[in-house]
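Weekly puzzle thread! Below is a chain. First person to post its structure in token form gets bragging rights.
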Amino acid sequence: MIMEVDKIKESILKAAQDLFRKYGYHKTSVNEIAKKAKIAKATLYKYFESKEVLLHYILMDFIRISVNEIIEKGAEETDKEAYLSNLILETSRLSYTICNEFIGWDFIRESTNAQGFLKLLSDDLEVFLIQSYRETHLFKGDEHYAEKLRFLIKSSKAIVFSFAFTSVTDSDVRKHFVSFQKEILPYLVKAAI
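Winning reply:
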């Protein structure tokens, strides 16, 4: 019985992730997810109370895997400034990937619900990052670690989201991201350290 439950849940998650990445969150219906997962729509709701909850589950899983990869990449880094710069860059790229590949920029810019969802997701990401990085080699024993990282994440998040929401094209988003990386991030990292 447990194996069957796991298979059904995994089928739903795989179908939803594929469809969200192909069409975006807004353009994917619960009916399409159920059809691709080869289950009844009611069965989907037995496992996930809404499409939004399903998306959140998929994204948090994607975030967990990605953050673990970021931690592994930085395991040998000894320079705190370089480590924090890379952390924010990789986290910003992760946020961009989530918006670009799973949700869709048009929906994000036009929907108050999407912006509220992203705020909740970014808050969850912030908490998860602080917990995940607490035990890394560069921050063990640093009692002000959480405050420093929270400052860096919040300020970076505000800047990155502001140009993501106001940019007209993906090209504009990328251009602003490069500008953020070169002109703003070094100062934020120095202020955090």
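Puzzle host: Confirmed. Bonus trivia for everyone else. The first helix runs from residue 2 to 23.
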